[in-house]
């Protein structure tokens, strides 16, 4: 974990923003997958990690702003636990490590909350996203799960986002570690993308690289020659020449900061003309965004910059036609790019999405669109230095969507449907980088992962790199 002063400063900042009341944070508990003792790998709640650093199940904490008190609630292990899990520090010692001097057994939490309620204190809590947390909160606050949903504190949500959205140097250093793991995962995936391989062989290998380098994957790996399915978690296809393989994968650092990278490569290592043409358009969109990102620019503008680049490129290859601006205004690009340009990234790969995407990605200056495609844009608000964001344009040929739009007579002024027929077996291409917004522009994080056509072809022709001990995180 970070030094305790980091957590103390974060909590002090939160107290200042809230001004009054009591903030209640529930850490995560172990979650079983098929019987009670067989559990998923533990993942702490990211806001709990941010303010209290403790990466263990079964903790809760309060920041009582009115009474200037911070308490961590948790139970010390007993002999049974020690036999099965090994020796653990006491809750008191763990609390001290993150700068909290008061700790109490878990059973004292309900007393504290009851007293606070009786004395008229406002109890702030974040929206729960796990069943166990909903049950605990429900019992503590005497609210039904439905009432809980409506009662999460908007004040606390906004205060937490205001802090977590700006990454400091220590956090960037953690993200860089996760980026290095992503470099190893993606260069390996490229080199393995040879005809005859099964997707699962590659997906399993790169998930293993993440684990071997010290952290789990930051989300289930998306790896497929059916890249037109945006979140494709099936890995059963056998790779064949002529297809493109999308790998969308990232890792978590030891302190749980994420990376999230996508690369798309031709099976066998050489782009054919059709693949190179479409690939270059997506790359131009990705690069135009990198060259244009700056503080103050709404990310929605960057989304539309990528959309215009894609329309321009598709016009050149004869798949679109007409005036680019009009095509984007009409939403014709959404046939090829039906998702948003990107999202925040940090302790969560879609950072803070559990707090409410509109609070994270939108503000009073920009409201979510309800138009097809654009509605999926997770980040639209003006950028600030310290934001870490993804830049992930794509072009997808989704046969069902092409057929639907064609049958509805949609965008006939802008789409060349007859030529598009021959692209229905193409799949999809997405290119994703993680950017740090700086005072003057942005920095692409991580060791550069091959991205141009030439770099990819060269990398795919080289032997596989093996993990060296010194690169462990
Ligand atoms: N990398 C997966 C996503 O951003 O949705
Ligand atoms: Mn992403």
Quick summary:
The chain has 17 helices and 15 strands. The chain has 473 residues and is of the alpha+beta class. The chain has a 5-stranded mixed beta sheet, sandwiched between helices.
Which helices and strands appear, and what pairs or packs with what?
Elements: H1 4-18, E1 22-26, E2 32-35, E3 38-39, H2 46-52, E4 60-64, E5 69-73, H3 79-85, H4 91-97, E6 102-104, H5 108-118, E7 123-125, H6 131-141, H7 145-151, H8 154-164, H9 169-192, H10 199-212, E8 222-224, E9 244-249, E10 261-266, H11 273-292, H12 299-316, H13 324-330, H14 357-361, E11 388-391, E12 394-396, H15 399-407, H16 417-420, E13 428-430, E14 433-437, E15 442-444, H17 453-461
Helix pairs in contact: 1-8, 9-10, 9-17, 11-12, 12-13
The structure holds glycine (GLY) and manganese (II) ion.
Manganese (II) ion binds next to loops.
Largest sheet: 5 strands, mixed
By DSSP (H or I, 4+ residues per run), the number of helices equals: 17
* Strands ordered across the widest β-sheet: 6-5-4-1-7
Overall residue-averaged pLDDT value: 97
Low-confidence parts lasting 5 or more residues at pLDDT below 50?
A: none
Overall shape: it is globular
CATH second-level architecture of the largest domain = Alpha-Beta Complex
Radius of gyration: 24 Å
Q: Could you name the CATH homologous superfamily of the largest domain?
A: Creatinase/methionine aminopeptidase superfamily
- The top-level CATH class of the largest domain is Alpha Beta
Share in β-strands: 5-15%
Instruction: Write down how many β-strands occur, each being a DSSP E stretch of 2 or more residues.
Output: 15
What bound compounds does this protein have?
glycine, manganese (II) ion
Q: What is the first-to-last residue Cα distance? A: 13 Å
How many domains make up the coordinates?
2
CATH topology of the largest domain: Creatine Amidinohydrolase
Fraction of residues in helix:
25-40%
Structural class computed from helices and strand pairing: alpha+beta
């Amino acid at each position: 974990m970070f030094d305790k002063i980091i957590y103390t400063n974060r909590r002090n900042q939160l107290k200042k923003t809230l001004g009054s009341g009591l903030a209640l944070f529930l850490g995560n508990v172990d979650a079983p997958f098929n019987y009670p003792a067989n559990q998923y790998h533990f993942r702490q709640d990211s806001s709990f990690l941010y303010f209290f650093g403790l990466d263990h199940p079964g903790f809760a904490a309060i920041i009582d702003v009115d009474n200037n008190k911070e308490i961590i609630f948790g139970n010390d292990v007993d002999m049974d636990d020690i036999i099965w899990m090994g020796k653990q520090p006491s809750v008191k010692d763990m609390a001290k490590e993150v700068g909290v001097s008061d700790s109490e057994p878990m059973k004292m939490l309900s007393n504290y909350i009851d007293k606070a309620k009786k004395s008229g204190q406002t109890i702030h809590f974040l929206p729960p996203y796990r069943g166990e947390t909903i049950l605990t909160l429900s019992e503590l606050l005497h609210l039904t799960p439905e009432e809980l949903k409506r009662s999460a504190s908007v004040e606390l949500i906004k205060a937490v986002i205001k802090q977590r959205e700006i990454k400091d140097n220590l956090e960037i250093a953690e993200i860089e570690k996760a980026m290095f793991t992503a470099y190893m995962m993606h260069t390996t995936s490229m080199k393995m993308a040879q005809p005859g391989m099964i997707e699962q062989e590659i997906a399993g290998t790169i998930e293993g690289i993440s684990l071997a380098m010290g952290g789990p994957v930051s989300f289930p790996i998306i790896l497929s020659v059916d890249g037109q399915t945006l979140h494709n978690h099936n890995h059963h296809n056998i790779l064949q020449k002529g297809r493109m393989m999308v790998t969308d994968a990232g890792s978590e650092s030891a302190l749980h900061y994420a990376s999230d990278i996508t690369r798309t490569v031709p099976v066998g290592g050489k782009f054919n003309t059709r693949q190179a043409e479409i690939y270059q358009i997506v790359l131009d969109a990705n690069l135009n965004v990198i060259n244009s990102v700056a503080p103050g620019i709404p990310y929605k503008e960057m989304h539309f910059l990528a959309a215009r680049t894609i329309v321009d490129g598709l016009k050149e290859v004869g798949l679109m036609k007409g005036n680019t601006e009009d095509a984007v205004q009409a939403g014709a690009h959404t046939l090829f790019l039906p998702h948003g340009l990107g999202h925040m990234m940090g302790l969560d790969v879609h950072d803070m999405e559990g707090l409410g995407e509109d609070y994270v990605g939108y503000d009073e200056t920009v409201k979510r669109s309800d138009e097809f495609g654009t509605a999926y844009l997770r980040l639209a608000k003006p950028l600030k230095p310290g934001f870490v964001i993804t830049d992930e344009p794509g072009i997808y040929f989704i046969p069902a969507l092409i057929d639907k739009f064609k049958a509805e007579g949609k965008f006939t002024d802008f789409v060349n449907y007859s030529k598009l027929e021959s692209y229905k077996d193409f799949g999809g291409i997405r290119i994703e980088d993680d950017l740090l917004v700086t005072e003057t522009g942005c920095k692409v994080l991580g060791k550069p992962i091959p991205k141009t056509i030439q770099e990819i072809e060269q990398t795919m022709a080289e032997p596989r790199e093996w993990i060296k001990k010194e690169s462990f995180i």
